[in-house]
Amino acid sequence: MSIVYRVVYGENMGRFDELFEQKYEFRLAQRSDIDAIMAYIDECWKKGHILAKNRDLFEYEFCEGEDVHFLLAIDRTSGEIQGLDGYYYTSSRRTGDFDVWGSMWSVRKDRKNLPMLGIAIANHYYKIIGYRYELGVGVNKDTATPLHQRHFNVATGILNHYYMLNNISTYKIAKIVKPCYLSADINNDSYFLREASDIQVVEKYFSFLDKITTYPYKDGWYVKHRFFDHPVYKYKVMLIMENDVEAEAVIILKDVVKDDRHVIRIVDYMGDISALSGVTNQLYKLMDDTCEYIDFYCFGYDEQEIINAGFVKREIDDENIIPSYFEPFEQRNVDYWFNSDAPENFVICKADADQDRPNIIE
Prior knowledge:
The chain is α+β, with helices and mostly antiparallel strands. The protein contains eleven helices and 16 strands.
């Protein structure tokens, strides 16, 4: 079990449990709760948040049939939502060894709620959903991260940020103080990239059961829903192949435009990370004269394999600025905190959980 009552409640576990159950109903959300959840997001999470305004995007993100992927804490007297915890499935599995991404763990601050309601929500979240492991990225380092460190036996940290600069004369998106370009010594084309037009092509060449050996487990259902079916963004799903029979990895790319420039972002990677160095030149050639860099936020992969593929690691105090915020654009470096209750062997990428969600829809 990833979260247990005794971590917080100790000998008073039964008493606290009784108080929470008397005051709150803890249950999974249904479609009839959507309006109330969206209102909660607007009032208690962030005013004007895209998920408080755009129901179509909300339903794409969280709805599956009549189920809405939130655990709610509802005041039994007023019927008002007092807290919630959202989640995303990482595969089509709904029983047994399935994993989830966490999203929007929150408690109302403008009501007189029982102390530690957020902890109680987290405990019910595990018990009711019944997942194997929960991982999150983009968590608030000042609020959520201390709770993860203090009360739950989970790993926390910051995603690594790697980038490959295009060798151009000027940069408008990035700010480059110390140029670091792809070495001429890196000239390996032992693999090739093949774009997949749909999930059937991916599953023809890539065996999720055989190739996904890390946590969380992802499958074709996840890739189809998350990337091929996205209602706003256009992702490029590429296979990294050594031959015409099977793929060693799946790499997901996203092109982001800012005025007359653009960048390419690796937002997900599934499979053998060592295959990345076999397509270095092909990745570099994806950058035209108006493309400034390719970047890759991730954690859990062998760092040397990514360096071998021609990427440079951005350090915390790096003088170079490789922006991550584009909606709206901010020319600054961004660090993403994560949490994971997988004991080991877990990987996290930029598009995991809710971190590559639109903030602005025109």
